[in-house]
Amino acid sequence: MLRFLTAGESHGQSLVVIIEGLPAGLDITVEEIQAEMARRRLGYGRGPRQRFEVDDLILIGGVRHGRTLGSPVAIEIKNTEWFRSDRWHAEMSPAPGSTESPLTQVRPGHADLAGMQKYGFVDARDILERASARETAARVAAGAVAKKLLSSLGVSVLSHVIQMGAARVGADGPRPHPSDLASVDASEVRCFDAAASDAMIAEVKAAAKAGDSLGGVAEVLAYGVPVGLGSHVHWDRKIDAALAQAVMSIQAVKGVEIGDGFEVAGRRGSEAHDAIYTDPETGAYRRRTSLAGGVEGGISTGEVLVVRAAMKPLATLNVPTLETVDTATGESAVSFKERTDVTAVPAMGVVAETMVALVLAREAQRKFGGDSMAEFTRNAMSFRDGL
How many domains does the chain have? Predict the structure, then answer.
């Protein structure tokens, strides 16, 4: 079964991801992974660090001649800013665990204080270096491989931003299809609705002028998902539960919704469910709407999968105003400032795609099995033919 593990810190030498459970024979190249990772750097409101933190990627195991071997795949993402990073080198003092200038003005809304208390650290950088969203670069690398695996089943995963601050796509706004991905990525805020996109950019400009940050919502759509991924039999086998956990694990995400979950909570049952009918052309069972987001009873229905992620405004501000304390003195202080973005919602959407793809790939492996791509796709085709 597919699983992955990341290691590395924001200003460290590199990030590493190991992906286990991939079948042998999956075609994958460095260029394909880099193309996916470049999408994580998109979005109006990103800070200058995006020009410096280049993703220099190396496949260091599990792939030979452009195809997986069935063994764990290891990917290293070097940090080209490593040699100029005073944030990291300043900590390389002779005494183990000591820091010449510890960071003690902790940021509200970040892992700084809780992490220091949990692990017994006196320097917030011991926590924030790993808690940083820079870690998601390794996830996106893993997600690029998961997407390639899913593509063999005809599954496509994409995202678009539906809210930025107070600006939001209307309830009847357009929903992109896989063929629209280039158009979504071409938008400065990765929004498929032109009018809403302009309003979102205005929100970002206003927040930037005030030295503030901005949150929002991204919607992830998965087309071509097979029927039967996940299960109703145990709490940890339900695919909507797995998706919620995976997406909620993204830094600064504070809410996850499957389909129209929060909206239908205020409706009566007669208006809250997806009617089922038989497609006259294919004979397949279909749903007329997507209120349930392509999941019923913890099992994928074969309809488009819809997952939304709500991201809070970033905790580091360009004009620090958040009240905090200095943990070295206990005195009141203002949270510190370092390079940051006004918003990272467009990038978060790409990371959410990654997490959705990784869950779908894992559940597809669980459902169809196979040590090779030929066996994996053959099993999936046999299941679909039997429906």
Answer: 1
Structure confidence by residue, pLDDT tens digits, 331-344: 998 887 666 789 99
**Cα dihedral across residues 121, 132, 262, 217: positive or negative:** positive
Cβ contact 91:64 at 8 Å: no
Please tell me the distance from the alpha carbon of residue 83 to that of residue 141, in angstroms, as a whole number.
23
Buried-exposed string 314-341: b where 16+ CB fall within 10 A, e elsewhere: bbbbbebeeebbebeeeeebebbeeebb
264 domain-assigned: no
pTM of this structure: 0.92
Domain with residue 167: its CATH number is: 3.60.150.10
Question: Long-range contact list for 120-125, CB < 8 A, 24+ apart?
Answer: 122/327, 122/328, 123/91, 123/99, 124/327, 125/87, 125/91, 125/99
Asked if residue 303 is part of any domain, the answer here is yes
Domain, as residue range, for 21 = 3-259+294-386
